[in-house]
Amino acid sequence: MLHKRIFEISNKDEFEVVALEVFQHQFSNNKVYREFCKFLKKTPKLVNTIKEIPFLPIEFFKTKDIVSDTITPEITFTSSGTTGTTTSKHHVTNLAIYEESFLKTFTEFYGNPSDYIFLALLPSYLERKGSSLIYMADHLIKRSGNKESGFYLNNMEELSEKLINLDTAGKKVFLIGVSFALLDLIEKKHFNLKNTIVMETGGMKGRRKEMIREELHQHLKTGFGVRKIHSEYGMTELLSQAYSKGEGIFDCPAWMRILIRDPEDALSLLPEGKTGGINVIDLANLNSCSFIATQDLGRVKNNKVEILGRFDNSDVRGCNLLLL
Q: Could you tell me if 96 and 150 are in contact, meaning their C-beta atoms sit under 8 angstroms apart?
């Protein structure tokens, strides 16, 4: 089966071969993506490399059902959004693929989930339904098999006490939190953690003033007493994540790749080292769309990805033209 081969990719050549097969599968089975490709005059017969594959603007997930399968979705993940905004919907027809993707990736970067106690500080996600991040965190918590693992909403005192006690006892702790909540935590308590990985998932969610990554990470490093802040790069519309173990430099699993597009010409890719829009290839997203043009800004060098921020509304015109 194609999805099994996706998780067996071990080099660039294999990635290219499987990516082209996934493109053909999605062109054949995803009506929205097929019409988009035809509009650009790109068909499997005319596409011979991954750089020729069209990337679907991520905005399509707000207005269309992006599905490459006839099976009824097992779950629909939804994005967070401010009041009055349209949220994205990601219809997932095979949750086992998502689970395999995030478990394999986590194990590759951090080891067996059973080695950790997971403390999830994700209030903005817990307060709504349909979060793919909550689904992943819940799965990792259960995989840890540790009764100390769990979610935290507003009970900061309880979390602070548990975090200090576990870290002092030499337990391996994995604290994953949304940015504003981690800042709230260190305002209430100063830490000096020795055995804890602190991972921010991004986003102030309208709760705090936005700040650049360097500023955010400096606050968090000081507040938690750690040398590095880890990060996760994922989104509702994907089934894979990239991870950073510090300095905002991300690595992807073997079935995920990031390319950089020209911000002035959405159909042109830029060479290594240049800054532009982030295009994501996520082959695990087999039954949706694996080729997505995001609204994020970044650059790639030596297979390392730096996430720099987001385009403002005036800067995404290259993609917006393709929505017409």
A: no
What is the CA 261 to chain-centroid distance, rounded? 18
* Residue 148 placed within a domain: yes
Distance CA 322, CA 179 (A): 32
Cβ-Cβ contacts under 8 Å for 292 (sequence gap 6 or more): 55, 56, 57, 58, 237, 238, 279, 280, 282, 285
The four Cα atoms 49, 50, 51, 54 give a dihedral, to 10 degrees, of: 110
Instruction: Answer for the pair 316, 295: CB distance below 8 angstroms, yes or no.
Output: yes
The distance from CA 119 to its chain's CA centroid, rounded to whole angstroms, is 19
Report the distance separating Cα 267 and Cα 269, nearest Å: 7
* DSSP 3-state of 118: strand
The total number of structural domains in the chain stands at: 2
Strand residue runs (E) in 79-116: 89-92
Rounded-to-integer distance, Cα 230 and Cα 10, Å: 25
Q: What is the CATH number for 16? A: 2.30.38.10
Q: What are phi and psi of 277, to 5 degrees?
A: -75, 145
Spatial contact of 27 and 206, defined as CB atoms under 8 Å apart:
no
Q: Summarize pLDDT for 95-125 with one digit per residue, the tens.
A: 999 999 999 999 999 999 999 999 999 987 8
Task: Quote the domain boundaries for residue 199.
Answer: 97-233
Rg of the chain, C-alpha, whole Å: 20
* 34, 28 contact by CB (below 8 A): yes
281 belongs to a structural domain: yes
pLDDT in tens, 213-262: 889 999 999 999 999 999 999 999 999 999 999 988 999 999 999 999 99
Rounded CA separation 201/176 (Å): 7
Residue where the block lists tokens 């994205």: 88
pTM: 0.92
End-to-end CA distance of the chain: 36
